[in-house]
From TrEMBL:
One Gene Ontology molecular-function label: fatty acyl-CoA hydrolase activity
Protein name from the UniProt record: Uncharacterized protein
Length: 146
């Protein structure tokens, strides 16, 4: 875990809202996927990708190809979390992203991974990254560490 953790450079902070907990008083498991989404979108904004992908006339859009999560500890109402996101691997039209949720006590509460594919809005087929964007994606996770 410590070795894997060293490669993270970007995080998004959030606070657990009351509506995200279940009858047992901890975060409902489905909300972790929302936390990963919020953090992934924050990373995409940092990279400037949401300007292009979010434009009404954009040709390419990102889609989630797969997403998984391992729950390591309970997360309770009003806890503050840092969700670290890193680009683990860059393919021709996809990226493999890793996630690490850390609570205020610096304990890992979840890990995850998923693949995002850039596709054509017109035909739904994968669209290759430009050489410039591919270089930017590869270098993004080398800026800082947890």
């Amino acid at each position: 875990m410590d070795e894997w953790k060293k490669d993270f450079s970007f995080f998004h902070e959030l606070q657990v809202r009351f509506g995200e907990i279940d009858g047992f008083g901890h975060v409902n498991n489905t909300n972790i996927f929302t936390y990963m989404e919020e953090s992934r979108i924050a990373m995409f904004k940092e990279l400037g990708l949401m300007n292009d992908w979010g434009a009404p006339d954009s040709i390419e859009i990102p889609v989630v190809a797969d997403l998984q999560c391992d729950y390591l500890a309970q997360i309770m109402y009003d806890e503050r979390l840092r969700v670290y996101v890193k680009i683990n691997e860059v393919g021709s039209s996809s990226i493999d992203i890793h996630y690490l949720g850390i609570n205020e006590k610096q304990n890992p509460v979840f890990t995850g991974r998923g693949a995002i594919v850039q596709i054509s809005r017109k035909n739904g087929r994968p669209v290759k990254w430009s050489d410039e964007l591919k270089k930017q994606l590869k270098s993004f996770s080398k800026e800082a560490h947890v």
